[in-house]
Amino acid sequence: MTDGVDWLADLDRVLLPESVLRQRVRELAQAIAADYAGKDLLVLGVLTGSFVFVADLVRALDLPLEVGFISASSYGKQSASNGQVTVLEGLWPELSGRDVLLVEDIVDSGHTLAHLRQELARRGPRSVAVCCLLDKTERREVPVTVEYLGFSVPNEFLVGYGLDYAGRFRHLPYVAALKAEAYQGKDEQSSEVLDDVGAE
Ligand code: 5GP
Ligand code: MG
To answer: Which of 33, 66, 72, 127 lies at a C-alpha separation of 20 to 30 Å from 40?
Structure first.
């Protein structure tokens, strides 16, 4: 608290506590390590939301690997992407012949992942799989395959463990639901600001 302002006041409740996240990350890492033994693994995180998940996941992976990041943003209202996904060109590492594991924070409509899978395939990797921490299944607009999924989550706006609201809350060690009144009705006035934030 600073000057009597509670910076966590917009949180409704903790959905996934730190210990639950830690355990699930360990399980995912074990599954991934078993599948990628002897392969040429490149863990490719999607900035910015996946940075905490990637950091924990790779440290739990008992096999040789490289880590890279790409930057993707979708444009439109804050609570949904409209299918226009922009990928920053300069960041792509060399993918040809690599076994790429794309790591995302959350799949919602599916537009971002569907687009990224297409972009990846164009760059000639030997294989592509997706590891996603959270899945809002009921919001799906386009089908996407997620080979390694952390948790299915309800249709609420989530923050923490890398996920932000208008740039805030990424550093929370848990995943929490934002109070509906914290973002509802603010779509109109804040969409411009959120678009400016760019990378998700
Ligand atoms: P999609 O293209 O699947 O609709 O959107 C995926 C992206 O939307 C995610 O990578 C994430 O950046 C953002 N997103 C979707 N749901 C949430 C949420 O509940 N909280 C936050 N912070 N971002 C979300
Ligand atoms: Mg994202």
So the answer is: 72
Distance of CA 109 to the CA centre of its chain: 13
pTM of the predicted protein model: 0.90
- Distance separating alpha carbons of residues 179 and 190, to the nearest angstrom: 16
CATH architecture assignment, domain 4-194: 3-Layer(aba) Sandwich (3.40)
Query: What is the rounded average pLDDT of the residues 180-195?
Result: 60
Please state the domain extents for the chain: 4-194
Instruction: Answer yes or no: 56 catalytic.
Output: no
| Structure confidence by residue, pLDDT tens digits, 127-150 | 999 999 999 999 999 999 999 999
